[in-house]
Amino acid sequence: MGYLRNSFKVVIVTGVPGVGKTTVLSHLSKIASSRDMKMIIVNFGDFMTETAMGEGIIKSRDELRRLPLRKQLELQSLAAYRIIEYASRELGNEGILVIDTHAIVKTPAGYLPGLPGYVLDKLKPDTIVVIEAEPEIIVERQARDKGRYRADFGGIEGVRSLLSYARTAAIASSISYASTVLIVYNREGEPEAAALEILKALEAL
Ligand code: ATP
Ligand code: AMP
Ligand code: MG
Questions:
Q1: Residue pLDDT, tens place only, 13-51
Q2: Confidence band (pLDDT; 50, 70, 90) for 177?
Q3: Which ranges constitute the DSSP H helices of the chain?
Q4: CA gyration radius, the chain
Q5: Is residue 114 exposed (0-12), middle (13-18) or buried (19+ Cβ within 10 Å)?
Q6: Whose CA is nearest to atom 13 of ligand 1?
Q7: Where do the domains of the chain lie, and which CATH numbers do they carry?
Q8: Which residues, by Cβ under 5 Å, contact ligand 3, an ion?
Q9: What is the pTM of this model?
Q10: Taking residues 51-56, what's their average pLDDT?
Q11: Coil, strand or helix: which one is 78?
């Protein structure tokens, strides 16, 4: 099985910027602790940001996608490696690794797959979750969240296109490791319901 899966279960959570991935996963984290589940939740962008900030090439995480493309690939590949190294240390042979990331990243050079072959070869996901919401609602969430810069996603029409690319990219990335794809709707004011839906699917892995 080692060539098909990691020893722990791997769930990748994707979705367009501002849809609510990090918020839903903070609820999942609380539910998992209350049930004594062995689960770690990591943010892929945190690993890329740490390296890039250490090199002094960005000041905030929203600058990553505007770095030269080849630099993004280097940071992406290193992040995947470090995440698996970290999860192996923390989880050993059991438990669940949840990764907060993107199936597609909008860059000035074009749309970059967040889960290309060399990343999947490390992560070997059991499931790829795609979190979705209406484009109008996502744009409102982006606007409310003043701590992040998300002005480069082109308003309602830009987000509508990105939703379609994000779902398509997740499906494309599911093929090489037979990862299941789970579409989860993050309803306004109900992030916990989305977390519970993810948890239910995890129990079936
Ligand atoms: P990114 O990919 O840019 O990191 P994200 O998908 O992680 O974005 P969050 O940071 O979790 O998005 O959420 C964006 C904003 O939307 C936050 O202000 C958050 O509080 C709000 N939000 C998330 N989910 C919901 C929800 N179900 N109802 C209302 N507001 C929400
Ligand atoms: P986030 O906070 O999830 O938006 O992550 C911050 C940034 O990290 C994103 O805007 C991307 O530039 C980058 N990032 C996150 N995941 C990936 C990935 N899988 N591949 C490439 N870049 C990524
Ligand atoms: Mg986030």
A1: 999 999 999 999 999 999 999 999 999 999 999 999 999
A2: very high
A3: 21-34, 44-54, 69-91, 117-123, 135-144, 155-174, 191-203
A4: 16
A5: buried
A6: 20
A7: 9-203 (3.40.50.300)
A8: 21-22
A9: 0.98
A10: 98
A11: helix
CA of 190, closest atom in ligand 1? 27
Coil, helix or strand for 130? strand
C-alpha 1 – ligand 3 centre gap (Å): 31
pLDDT tens per residue, range 110-168: 999 999 999 999 999 999 999 999 999 999 999 999 999 998 988 999 999 999 999 99
Tokens read off for 33 = 């602790």
Ramachandran class of 36: left when φ > 0, alpha when ψ lies in -120 to 50, beta otherwise? left
Q: DSSP characters for 169-190? A: HHHHHHTTTT-EEEEEE--TT-
CA 38 to chain centre: 19
pLDDT at 2: 75
pLDDT digits (tens, 9 = 90+) for 186-196: 999 999 999 99
Q: Which residues line ligand 2 (CB under 6 A)?
A: 17, 43-45, 48, 61, 64-65, 72, 76, 100-102, 105, 114
**Whose alpha carbon is nearest atom 1 of ligand 2?**
45
> What is the distance between the alpha carbons of residues 77 and 64, in angstroms, rounded to a whole number?
14
- Span from the CA of 20 to the centroid of ligand 3 (angstroms): 7
